[in-house]
Each structure stands twice: as C-alpha cells, then as structure tokens.
Amino acid sequence: MKKGKKGLLIALIAANVFVLLLGILTITPALRGLAERIDMLGAGKPAPPALTEEEVEGEPWEDPFGYEFEGESQGSSFGESQLPVQNAADFSTEERPDLGDFQWYLEDVMYEGIPAAAVNITSLDALGGGWKALIFYDPNDEYGSNAYDFLNITLRGTAENLQLVFDWYLIFWSWEGETYDLTDMEDTVFTGRWEDGRIWASGAGTVHLTDFYTLYNKQFALGTMDTPDGIPALVALTRP
Predict the structure, then answer these.
(1) Fewer CB atoms inside 10 A, N or C side of the chain?
(2) Which residues contact residue 188 at a Cβ distance below 8 angstroms, ignoring those fewer than 6 apart?
(3) CA pair distance 162, 109, nearest whole angstrom
(4) Res 86: pLDDT
C-alpha cells in the first residue's frame, strides 16, 4: 500500500475513534441524569401485586395491622354501614382501661377526626354491654382542671329507657401530676334514650354519645359530657 493511502486510512480510523469517544462522553452524563430522574419517579421498583378476583369481589380482607375486616368493603366511608348487626356480647369487656387503650383518640382522632375506613354502627343492639372509657376533662386547660378519668361503662336497657352505668377506676389530675384510685366509689347511673343514632343520658351531668363505629374488629364511641360545674369534657369509649 502506498504511504499516502496508508496515512489517509490511519487518519480516518483516528477520526472515527475520536467521534466515538466524544459520543460516549456526551451520552453518559445524559443517561445518568435520565436514570436519576426515573429513579425519583419510582420507576424500576417492583410493581404492587395485582388484586385477585376474590379480593375484587369483596372476600374477607386482611389489613397490614393483622386484623381481619369482615365487611363487604375494606374502604367504606364513615356513615355508610356495610356490616350486619354485630353481636354485642362478642365485644363486651370488663377489663380495666389504661392510657394505652386511648392513644388512638388522644393522638389521632381528637385532631384528625374519624378514620375514613370506619364503618358506622347504627343499631343499639350492637352497643350493649361493657366498654373501656375515658373522660378527658378541660381538654384545652382553660379552667385549670385538666384531668384524665379512666373507668368502665356498661350500656344497658332499651332505646326508650337506656342506662349508662359508670364504674369508676382511676383519675389523673394533670396539675398535681398524681393518680388517684376511685374503685371504692359507688357506681353512677345515667339514664336517657337512644335517638337518631345517638345517646344522651343524665345523672351527675349529661353524657352525649354522638358517634359509634367499627374499625379493625374493634368498636369505638365518641361524645362529650356536660359536668355539673360547667367544666367541658370529652368522652371516648373502646372495646374489646
């Protein structure tokens, strides 16, 4: 091969190598940036498993917390009851309450409201029996009377002649930082009615229970209490 042609061939090869290197240097950062943007969007992560036909059709659903929801829908909104009338005896409890029983209320529901997945209870037959209860006096500490009263409440009777029996247990006075045993106190009976899906009962003050619902195989009730001395109070019930 003549020297002129050989030199030209070497020059062409060198030019091609230069262009290839230039392309690599230019494309690599662009690909890296694209990969980063894709990662930010969540691409490349495994897709969630598809719902089975049974799940779509409403078979019993097991939620991430380990409870089994027995309704027809796992996401029914509050106020749309999709559960049959429940057996109150399955929920009734005489176990004494403690602060841990009401974290759901004090740290969540009191500020955020009732969860969207809650199922409204509209039958008094599903509410009879024993409950763990909390009365939260002076929740905004406007009167210097902030306190947590833990007790058991038994709901009994009929819609027209209903009773709430308060079995006192412990009270924590926030301004003293002390807890007092109330188990020697005589039970207090409040009498009232079930009207329009709500309960009111009067005794040493008046109790208004306005919301009843089921969530994660537990029952909950919310309301307020008008105390004789005018101190505002919130009421929360749970079981089992």
Answers:
(1) N
(2) 165, 166, 168, 203, 204
(3) 27
(4) 62
Nearest CA among 238, 211, 235 for reference residue 98: 238
DSSP 196: T
116: β partners: none
Q: Which residues pair with 222 in a beta bridge?
A: 211, 236
DSSP H or E segment with residue 170: strand 162-173
How many residues comprise the chain? 240
SS (H, E, C) 70-104: CCCCCCCCCCCCCCCCCCHHHCCCCCCCCHHHHHH
Residue 140, classified by CB atoms within 10 Å of its CB into exposed (0-12), middle (13-18) or buried (19+), is exposed
Residue 151 and residue 181 in contact, taking contact as beta carbons nearer than 8 Å: no
The token pair that represents 20 in the structure block: 């290839």
Residue with tokens 């079995």: 167
pTM, 2 dp: 0.65
Which pLDDT value is given to residue 50? 39
Instruction: Give the helix ranges, DSSP H, for the chain.
Output: 3-40, 53-56, 103-104, 110-112
What distance in Å separates the CA atoms of residue 185 and residue 205, rounded to the nearest whole number? 17
Beta bridge partners of 147: 137, 173
| Segments in the chain below pLDDT 50 | 1-6, 8-12, 15, 17-85
Tell me if 143 sits within 8 A of 132, measured CB to CB: no
What confidence score (pLDDT) does residue 151 get?
Answer: 98
In angstroms, the CA 78 to CA 29 distance is 51
